[in-house]
Specification:
The protein has 78 residues and is of the alpha+beta class. The protein is built from two helices and three strands. It has one domain. A hairpin with a 5-residue loop joins strand 1 and strand 2.
Length: 78
Amino acid sequence: MSLSKETKIDQITISEDGIVFYRESVLITEDGNEISKNYHRSTLIPGSDLTNTPANVTAICNVVWTADVIQAYKDSIK
């Protein structure tokens, strides 16, 4: 019997105002057969601290979150 756990980001969505939503899936398999799959969703607002954020999500945030996007988001919540 061989158990395996695979964690990956399987969805990344960016809203019009620069908010980044991503979904992490955790797949547990036994001898190649799926026995469990769970999801965890996270949201990042423009300018958020990206410490401990997955590298591929961080890379997208660094492209999307220009100074103008961050400022527009801050202005929208005042």
